[in-house]
Amino acid sequence: MNDLVRLTAAELTRLRSRRVSIVAAVVVLAAVALFQVLIHSEVAPTAAAQASARQAYEAAQQTWQAQHTQSVAECVRQGGGTQEECESYDPAPTEADFQVTPPPFDQVGVAGVSTATYLSLFAAFLIGASFIGAEYATGSLANWLTFVPRRLEVFASKGVAVLLASALLGAVAVFATLGLTAAQVAGHGEPLVRAGHVAAAGGRAVVMVALAGVAGYVIALLTRHTVAAIAVPLGYGLVRTVVAGFTSDVDAPLAWLPPYLPELNLQAFLEHGVTYTQYRSTLADGSDYTEIEKHVSFGHSGLYWLTLAVVAVVAGALVFRRRDVT
After folding, report:
1. Which of 270, 299, 261 is nearest to 174 (CA)?
2. In the chain, count of helices (H) and strands (E)?
3. In whole numbers, what is the pLDDT of the chain averaged over residues?
């Protein structure tokens, strides 16, 4: 155990000194700062901005009141739907639509957490992949194994170092965003609505960022190249686009697939469960359909990511234990 701790400390030092790690961290933190600038006018609007938004809202409301009845009647006459359906097509304007009042903290806070999370996911994956990919490319991995021939300890120390560094990056990005957003909202005199809910989402986000770093590390280890590791999610995105049409209809060949897709399970983990929609055609030509809502639970997504993490780490360890790295 002491040897593993010393090796992990050495790997953390090497990881911290890498240019990719520094650049990725700076880019993520710069994006966090930029997010605060972009939301400032929303969470802390000036009196003039609020007055202008109020005028726009009142004008839109007057227009809606003058035209709504006629619009609904025209919709029904042209066969656009029932009275209730046509009513729903033309809802009344709300103050939220025109930002008459600042958005609640939970809304802007979750948006900030999501922004920081996805940026950190990409950065952590890149850091993990480039860390081991560069060692394969330069031959330093073979040199390191001549000094420390215990391969499983080397594999574990590098993986733990990537895990800790990714978790730190995610925690700083997510909770800096959360803290700065809360400061802006509170400074404007608005309540921190559902702050605990947003903080919990941030904690779950840190877990996913840490796993993203490990994923980059394992994939690059298996492929022996940083670029090949980066190509894996890009290739997945291409395949996902091609098969999308076979997953949206409940009668399609791959209708069973969505609960096992990584993007849906990522969303379910971050949001503590998520609902998605599939369709069923009600006419033979597909011109009309009904929507069917389905749910992916937080427990399902947690087990999904735990299973993938275990399989990836075990596969990486087995390959690294036997592979020729020269």
Report:
1. 270
2. 11, 2
3. 89
